[in-house]
Amino acid sequence: MADDPLFILIALVMFGVVGILFFGISSFAKGGAFSRKWSNRAMQWRIMAQFVAVVLILLFTYLRSKH
């Protein structure tokens, strides 16, 4: 399964979600003008990345259930 390109894409997107999450949390922690500029935007990016990850996971599950 680890050599499946769709599985690798899902893993990369999930790592991206974690990276965006850490960036958003760090922008909240930093505070000030940086937080006002980036924290909300980062959380919006996280939601979009999570949506992509969930769609890819559902696609992966659907394609594998057909075998």
From TrEMBL:
The lineage of its organism: Bacteria, Pseudomonadati, Pseudomonadota, Alphaproteobacteria, Rhodobacterales. Keywords: Membrane, Transmembrane, Transmembrane helix. It comes from Sagittula salina. This is Twin transmembrane helix small protein. Coiled coil: none annotated. PROSITE patterns: HIG1. Residues 1-67 form the HIG1 domain. The chain crosses the membrane at residues 6-25, 45-63.
